[in-house]
Amino acid sequence: MNAGRQRGVALITAVLIVALATILAVNVGFRGMLDQRRSATLFALDQGYEIALGAEAWAADFLRRDAQESKTDHLGETWARPLPPLPIEDGVVEGRLEDQQGRFNLNNLAFHDGTTNPEAVKQLERILVALQIEPAWASTMADWVDQDTQPGFPDGAEDSVYTGQDPAHLAANMPVTRVSELMVLPGFGAERYAKLKPYVTALPVGTALNVCTAPGIVLDALTENTREFGLNPKDLADRRKDACFPTLDDLRGSLGNEAYDKVKNSLTESSSYFRATVWVTIGTTQFTLYSLLARGGTGTVRPQLRSFGSD
Question: Does position 1 have pLDDT exceeding 70, yes or no?
Fold first, then answer.
C-alpha cells in the first residue's frame, strides 16, 4: 500500500513538473515572439524615418526647381500633384505638398510689435462665420498670440481664464508654431477644430496670403460682403487647373480699388512655405512625417519644423 502511495505521489509530482515546464516554455516563447515583433517594428520605424527624409529632400528639390521655372505658385504646377504610391522594399511610400501661404495665418492676428491686428481679427471672424463657427473665437485666438495681458473686449481671454483651467496655465502671448494650439482655447473643441483646420496655418508674422492657392472662403474673408469665390468651389478649382486664379489684378477687379488697397500689402502670387506630408508603409508599420519647408529667395529649401505621427 505504501509503495502504491509513493507511485501516486511520484506521478502527481511528474505531472506538476511537466505542467510548470510547459508554462515556462510557453511564457519564454511568447516573450521571445513579443521581443521579435517589437524589434521588427522599431527597425521598420527607423527605415520609415530615413525613407521619409529622402522623400522630404525630393520634395525640396521639386520646390527648388519650381522657383527657377516660375515666379508664381498655383495649383496647376507639378509640386501640387500628390506623389502616387511608389514601391519600396516590403512596402510603399506616398506624399504630397501643400501651400501653407494659401491659408489664413493665425500669427497675423498680431503685428510684429505684438499688438493686435484688428483687420486680421475681422478676416478670421468672417472665415468662422462662413464655416458656421461662432466669430467670438477670433478675439480669443488674438489674445493667445498678442503680447499684452489685457483681454480683448468682449470675447478675449488672458491669464485669468487659463489659470482656471485644469491643468492651470498661462496664455502664450507669442506666435504659435502649430495650428493645433487652437485646441487650448477653453471650450473650442475638436469639432470646431476639424472645420477650421484646412483654412488656417501658423507661419511667421506678416507672411502674405497667396491668392492663387487660397480657398474661396479665405479669399471672400479679405473684405466685407464679398461672396464671389466661396460660392462655387468647383468652378474655382476648374479655373486653377492650369494657371493662377484669381491673380492680383483679378482680385482688384472683384474687390474694387478702395477695398483692394486696404489688403494688397498682405497678398502675393508666390509662396515661401509649404508642408510636405510623407506616408511610409513597411509591412504592417506606417510612419508619417509632417515637414514645414521654407523656400528662400535664392531657391534654397530648408525644413523649419518636423513632426511625426500626428500634425
Answer: no
